[in-house]
Amino acid sequence: MSVRSPWGPTLAFRRAGALLEANALPIQNSQSKIDDEAGEARNLLFLARERDADVTAVDFAEEGLRAARRRAEAAGISLKTTAADARTWRPGRPFDAVLVTFLHLLPEARAESYRRLRDALVPGGLLLAEWFGDAHADKGRFAEIGPPTPKRLISAHELREHFPQGGIEVLEETERDLDEGPILKGRAAVLRFAWRKPIS
Ligand SMILES: C[S@@+](CC[C@H](N)C(=O)[O-])C[C@H]1O[C@@H](n2cnc3c(N)ncnc32)[C@H](O)[C@@H]1O
Fold it and tell me: What is the Å distance from ligand 1's center to 115 Cα?
């Protein structure tokens, strides 16, 4: 299946997570998915509901996970949660897909976290991610939201260094209006990334 443009310009982004609202999202039904730094698991609840996905939310904030479980229960959705630090966590088994949205670790922790993300996937598995990109450092234009320091912004160059080039299916730097909850609301320079783990 082609995943060249899961975020085409004609998509109508909605609150539940623009990354995953894309109707071309290249994920089959009923596969296991994990969301690192899930917050309240908005993306996973969307996937579980719309795609019948078996999902696990990971975040080190137990409070967010509790809220996610409440939301899942209220919607009659099955959601597993794991309280863990993305810098050290190892899943018990690899996943078919991993979603990461707006996890902004410090530079010294990122190489290891990228390695863990690669390891968390089955061969052929897909990492889908969105971050504030390094262009977001322009506070003249993007003052309202984003990480507290530009050191936490992610560059395309860094992703190319840490993910074998052949697996990169999308690496897009763009600007958009985030409307994904109170701390993710406003104009943003983002980096969107899809990487498929090689089969061999
Ligand atoms: C900006 S929120 C994004 C939440 C969610 N991914 C979303 O897009 O709505 C960042 C999340 O990352 C989590 N987080 C930050 N550092 C983490 C770490 N080292 N391990 C696990 N979770 C972390 C926070 O608890 C928070 O839920």
Answer: 18
For 18-196, which CATH class?
alpha beta
- Residue 187 in contact with residue 142, Cβ under 8 Å? yes
What are the residue boundaries of the structural domains of the chain, listed by start?
A: 18-196
- Ligand 1: atom nearest CA of 61 is 25
- Ligand 1, atom 4: nearest CA belongs to which residue? 39
The first and second tokens of residue 123, run together, are 């061969």
- Name the closest-CA residue to atom 12, ligand 1: 37
Q: Tokens in use for 112?
A: 């290891």
Distance 60 CA to ligand 1 centre (A): 7
Sign of CA dihedral 23, 38, 146, 155: negative
Q: What is the pLDDT tens value at each position of the chain, 200 positions in all?
A: 223 334 333 222 233 344 454 434 444 444 567 776 677 787 888 778 877 778 888 888 888 889 889 989 998 988 889 998 989 988 888 888 888 889 999 999 999 999 999 999 989 888 989 999 999 999 888 888 999 999 999 999 999 999 998 999 889 899 988 887 778 889 999 998 989 899 97
In order of 47, 108, 162, the CA distances from 112 in angstroms are: 27, 8, 10
